[in-house]
Amino acid sequence: MNNDETDKFSLKRDLGFFPALSTVMGLVIGGGVFFKISSVTAATGSPSLTIFVWLLAGFITINAGLTVAELASAIPVAGGIYKYIEYIYGKVPAFLLAWAQSVIYYPAGISALSIIFATQVMNLCNIPGTWQIPIAISLAVFLYAVNLLGAKVGGRIQSISLIAKLIPIILIIVVGIFTPSSNHISLFPITSGTHPSFWSSMGGGLLATMFAFDGWMNVGNLAGEMKKPEKDLAKSIIVGLFFITLIYVLISFVFIKALPFHLIPGNQNAASEAAIKIFGNIGGKIVTIGILISVFGSVNGYTMTGPRVSYVLGVDDEIVFSKFFSKLTKNSRVPANAGFIQTIIAIIMIFMGSFDYLTDMLVFVMWIFSMMMFIGVFILRRSEPELERPYKIHFYPLPPIIALAGGAYIIISTLLRQPGLAFTGIGITLLGLPIYYIHYFNKKRSL
Prior knowledge:
The chain has helices at residues 3-7, 17-28, 32-44, 47-74, 81-89, 91-125, 132-147, 151-178, 198-213, 229-258, 270-279, 282-305, 307-315, 322-325, 336-352, 355-383, 398-417, 419-430, 432-446. It is mainly α and 447 residues long. The protein has a single domain, classed as Amino acid/polyamine transporter I.
């Protein structure tokens, strides 16, 4: 990536390693750590397969992280995975990715997590259910306004919320592991319980866990605002994913240990009920506060990183109303208009969406593009062997092969198990094609 291309991005470079690490962990550790246990256990049917799919999801994600880290260090510019896809495959696939991120991925993440936040506020404060949508919208709007103050402010929120959210999680893990339980947990052999198909159960469980791991790639969007992206970006991804996997496996084990397994599948209050078993009645309030802090940080992460994608589309004049999307605030230098549109779409989804449906769709769509990135590492190794790579994958080509195998399993399993969801996601993504070509031909006509 030459200096001329990098220089055209005028974002402030004031983020270091810890804000990047906090963004990785803050984006990933959100509502999923507490809420996905119900859908994972419903899909797997047994404690052994539940723990196994968390380990498998972490293993796949770490190998995906190792793979993408090479691209991130070689192409350290604002725009993240959009720029990686464009560099390898060209403008049309990159636009489809950015389109999918702008209209599905980021708004769906914000809306789903804002709904979770509102639900927990109502449970904590005994507020009537009619307040769910107003609270969710208020959170989305508030974090959009806060992020107008600049990436440094958003990064500080991520750092503070990461530390705050890890405290109750670590308490639950440490106390839960050493608290006696009458529930017997058998981790071997790995079975699907009463479910007839082991592979279908594993596929469903893996898809559910992947939302809990989702979000780590978005730190690449901040490369243009990092002091040393070639050094800190790869390190933040790898270190963050290792600790995230450890946390997820341990806290899932604690939930299963604390509650009879049959009470967990489909139970959205499983985390609170497990905390009550561990700490007593105050445990429910502790875990609810932990969820609120965790989800708050995760919504902030989506709000902070998402607008950088449509901003880059505007800078590159690849979207209608490019000047509108490329506009930065005068002092803080953040993409205010791009963030405004993202927030509006998220608010619409708050009225329309279901937590599990929205999260499963965004995971499916993003894994299609993730597969393209994994393949892209092989392409660049062959076509540009002299490209400067401050970080190179160890044990190449094993990590990208593992990441590809995991991604293929997720995509095929979703197509077989949830074809309606899969084709809806694909259809919305492909709607970006006419939008791209309309703008493309209008540009050619104006020359």
